[in-house]
C-alpha cells in the first residue's frame, strides 16, 4: 500500500466523482520522528574541519544503543574506545573490571548522582579481540525507555565518551580489519539510508522550537567567532571598528546564560517522544480528525461537519498494532481561508514538508530507499451506494474506510501494521533516546567549551574555545565550515590592503 | 652582459645555442648536444626561485628559465614579507631550508611581529623589505646554488612524449621549446609563471598585454596549456601607485617604529642584519570623503573595477573598498621601498583609475597634499589553472612530470608562492629519482592547508592564507615549524642541510626533555606561592601543582621558574629560544592534547590512499552517483581524507571508496607485492613516527 503520492493540495481527478463525491482522500504519512540527528560522519568531514568537536579518531570512546528500537525485553548499549574500561568501572562503581568476555551481573548507577539505574549484564571485551578491535563494553539493560535513557546519559557524562556517529562502530571495525568485505557491502547502503533519513529527521527536529534555538545559537556563535577571527587575522593592520571583541564577549556570555538555562530546563521539560510518527493529512473535511479519534480511541480532535475545524497540528501518542506511534492530526490543506487556519495549513505542510520532495522523487518504484511511506485512504465509503460504481479504477492503490461505521478499519490497521513493522524494523532509524542524549551531549559540550573563552588572555586559545563550542552546535544544526567565517569577516569588515 | 662564475654552474643569458655546451650534462653520450636537465623551472619569481633551489638541494641538476635574469627575486607588489598566516608559511618554507626567510633576514628595513598580544600561535612575523637588497641577495643565493643553472629565455611550448604506463596522465613532459626555437630537455618541468599567462595590465580604460609593468606576457604557453585540456580561469589583482618620498609631509602623520629587538624569520638566524635603530619607520594616514567622491565620479573611466573577473575580497582596491564600505575612512600605510629608495608604497591605495586621476586622488589625502606619483597604480588580469587539476605534490593530473606552483594555481602573495615553490621543487626532484612524493598534510602545516584547500576545493578568487583557515592552529605555530617539517624534509625529501637537521633534532629532544622535567616537578600550591610570590596560583583543591602548570601563567617564564627551582631547570634557560618555546608549549599544553586526538583521526583518513589510476567515470566495482563520480574525476583526491573534504562527496560514497581501496589492496596483495600497497602501508607506518 505504498503509493506514489499525489500532491496533497492537488488530488487526482476522479472520473466518476459525481457519484462518489463524498469519497475523500486521506493520506497517512509515516515516518519516524526524533530519530537520530546523528549527522553522518562524512557530513562533518565535508565541511572544513574547523569544528573542533571530537573526531572519529582512535582517541574518542563512542557509545550507542545497538539493539533495535521499539519494545524489547533487553536493550544492548555498546561502547568502543580506550575509555570503555574506565566507563564500565565508573558506572558499576567497581575498582576492577569484570573478567573478559564473561557476562557479569552488575548494578549500574549514575556517576553524578549515585542513583541506581538498573541491574544489568555487562560484558567486557578488551581489544583487539572485540567487534571493533578496540576495548569494548556491552551493557545488557532492561529495555524500558527510562533505563536506556538513563544509561545513555550516564555514559555521556563520563569524560572522553561521546555518542557515536552514523556507522562509526562499523567504520572502526573496518579500519581495524575486523570486517570482511561482504559485511562492509551492507554498510554503504546503511549509511546512505541513514544519511537520507537523518537529513529528514534533522529537518523535522530542527523545525521545532529546539531547532530554532539551536540555529539561533549557532548563528550567534559563528558571528562571534568570525569577529574574533577577524581580530586575529586583521586586527593589527586594519582598522576594525572599536569594540569588536567586547561585543563578541557580550554575545558569548549571553549565549552561555541561555544555554545553561536551557540545559537545566531540558532535563525536566523535554517530552520524550518515542515511536514512529504518523501524520494524517488531506483536504479539509475529509475526516482526518475522525480517523485520528478512531485510531486513538479517544476524542483527541474536535470533529464537526464544517471544513477547517482543525487548525493546528495535534499530536497524540497511541499504540497502533503493537507499535508506539505518535499520531498527528493536521489542518486540511486548502488555500484562501483565515489567517489562523492558514497558519494551521502551513504547519501541516511543514510537518510533512520534508516528505514532499521525497514523495515526488521516490515514488512507488523504490520505496525501500526511504523511511517515509504513504498510505492512501479514501474515507466516507458508507456514502458509496453498494450497487453503484466504485472509485475510479485508475486510482493508485488505496484503502476504503468509513470512520462513521468503522468499515475498513481492520484493513487499515493491518496495512499500518505492515508499514510500521517496516519502518520500525528499519535499521537506519536511530533511537529517539540517543537523539536526546546526543542533543544534551553537544549542548553541554558547547557550554563547557564556552567557559574556557577568556579573550583577555591568549586570544588564540579563546578562539579555540569558540571553535570547539561552535563545532558542538553545528553537529546539531549542520554547516560549520571555514568559508562561513570568512564570509562574515569580509561582509562585516573592510579588511585587507 | 652576464658574467660566468664558479665552476660552470652559472650560465649567463644564453641567446644562442653555441653557449649550450657549457651545460651539456646529458648522461647519454650518443645524444646530440641538446641540453638535458633533471628539472626545469620556468619563472624566476617567488615560486620559481624556491622551486629551483629546492630541486637543486634535493640533488637534481636544475635549470631556471626566466624572461630576464635581472628580475629574479623581484618583489612586484608590496615591499614587505610575512604577516599573520603568511609569516607562518615563511617559517615552514624556512624549515624546509627554503630561501625567502633567510633573504628577508638580510634585506629588511623594518621588522615587526604582529599580534604580539594575541598569543604565540598567531604571531605574525613581518618585515618591510628593501626591494633592491632582496633582489641582490636572492640573485647571489641563486647563482651560488650548486647544481643550479640560470638561463634567460621565454618558453613557447612544452615537449610532450608518451606517458609512463605506471602513472596516470595522457602524456609526459620531457622538455621545453623556447621562443627562438631551441629546445631543452628535462625529466620534470615546473611552471611558475605568476601573472604572465595572458597577462593584461589595466590603467583606466587602457589595457595592454604584460605580465608585470614593462614585461612581456606568456601567450604561447597559455595556448599550449589550454590545448592540452587544462581548465583555465581568469583572476585579477592590482597594485598601488608609487609616490616620491620627498613629496610627502611625514611630520603630520602617525609614525610606526619597528620592534626592538628584531625577530628574525629564519630558524638559523639569531638576529637580523640591521640594528633596530637603523631601521626605517612606516607612517599611517587615512582616506577621506573626497577620495570617495573621485572614485564614484569616475567609475565610467575604470574598466578594471567594472569587469566581472574575480578579484580578492581581502586585498581590495580602493575603488572596491569605497563601493562596498561607503562613508568610511580607510587606512593608508606609507611604507618604505628600501634604504636608499626615493619611493614610498601607499599600502591600501591599490587602484586602476586613469593616471591623472590617481594623482588628483592622492593629493586629497592628509600628508600627501603635494605628493608626486612616480609610477601609477595598475590592475593585472591573468589566466590561472584550476588547482583541482593538480595533486598535493603539485604535479598535474593531465601531464606527467609537469608541476605548477604559485599564482598560476590561483593564489596571491609572495609567501603562498614560495611555499608552493618549495613543494614543487622537492617533488619534481623526487619524481626524477622515482621516490614517493613529499606531501604536507593539513595536520602538519599551513603549507598543507594551502595545498589541500587548492587541490580539493579549487578557488574562485586569489587564495590567501589566513590563520582562520587552519583547523589545528594551536598545533601549527610559527615557533615549531622546524619540529613539524625539518625532520621530514631531511628524511623524506632530502632538501634540508645536515646542519639545520641536527639543530632541529637537538631542539626537538631538548623540548621533549624539558617538558617531561617540567611535568615531573610538583609542589603544593602554597609552596609555589612562596617560591614565586608574584604569581597567584588558583587551585581549588590541595593537589600538587606541576611546574608545567605554573609556567602557563602569563606572569611566569622560564627565567622566573628557574630562579625558583634552579635545579634542574637552570640549564633550560641558557638557550633563549628553547626557554621561549618551552613557555609556549606550556601555554597550549592542555588544548594540544585534545587536538592531537583529532589530528590522529584525520591522519587515519589521510593514510588511506586511493589508487591513482581509478577512472571514476567508468569504474564498475563502486556504486557512486554520477555527481560524485564527476567531482572525484575532476579533483582526483589522493586519500580518503581528501575525498571526504570535497563538497558533495557523500559519506556513503566515502564508505564505498573505502571498500574499493580494501578490495584493491587485497587483490594486489594476492598479485604478490605491488608497490602501491607497499606505499599505503609505509604511509600508515610513517604516521606513527610523525606524531609531534
Automatic annotation (TrEMBL), chain A:
<dbReference type="InterPro" id="IPR018948">
    <property type="entry name" value="GTP-bd_TrmE_N"/>
</dbReference>
<comment type="similarity">
    <text>Belongs to the TRAFAC class TrmE-Era-EngA-EngB-Septin-like GTPase superfamily. TrmE GTPase family.</text>
</comment>
<feature type="domain" description="MnmE helical">
    <location>
        <begin position="181"/>
        <end position="494"/>
    </location>
</feature>
<feature type="domain" description="G">
    <location>
        <begin position="277"/>
        <end position="360"/>
    </location>
</feature>
<protein>
    <submittedName>
        <fullName>GTP binding protein 3, mitochondrial</fullName>
    </submittedName>
</protein>
<keyword id="KW-0342">GTP-binding</keyword>
<dbReference type="Pfam" id="PF10396">
    <property type="entry name" value="TrmE_N"/>
</dbReference>
<dbReference type="InterPro" id="IPR027417">
    <property type="entry name" value="P-loop_NTPase"/>
</dbReference>
<dbReference type="InterPro" id="IPR031168">
    <property type="entry name" value="G_TrmE"/>
</dbReference>
<dbReference type="Pfam" id="PF12631">
    <property type="entry name" value="MnmE_helical"/>
</dbReference>
<feature type="domain" description="GTP-binding protein TrmE N-terminal">
    <location>
        <begin position="61"/>
        <end position="178"/>
    </location>
</feature>
<dbReference type="GO" id="GO:0006400">
    <property type="term" value="P:tRNA modification"/>
</dbReference>
<dbReference type="GO" id="GO:0005739">
    <property type="term" value="C:mitochondrion"/>
</dbReference>
<dbReference type="GO" id="GO:0005525">
    <property type="term" value="F:GTP binding"/>
</dbReference>
<dbReference type="InterPro" id="IPR006073">
    <property type="entry name" value="GTP-bd"/>
</dbReference>
<dbReference type="InterPro" id="IPR027266">
    <property type="entry name" value="TrmE/GcvT-like"/>
</dbReference>
<dbReference type="GO" id="GO:0003924">
    <property type="term" value="F:GTPase activity"/>
</dbReference>
<dbReference type="InterPro" id="IPR025867">
    <property type="entry name" value="MnmE_helical"/>
</dbReference>
<dbReference type="InterPro" id="IPR027368">
    <property type="entry name" value="MnmE_dom2"/>
</dbReference>
<dbReference type="Pfam" id="PF01926">
    <property type="entry name" value="MMR_HSR1"/>
</dbReference>
<dbReference type="InterPro" id="IPR004520">
    <property type="entry name" value="GTPase_MnmE"/>
</dbReference>
<keyword id="KW-0819">tRNA processing</keyword>
<keyword id="KW-0547">Nucleotide-binding</keyword>
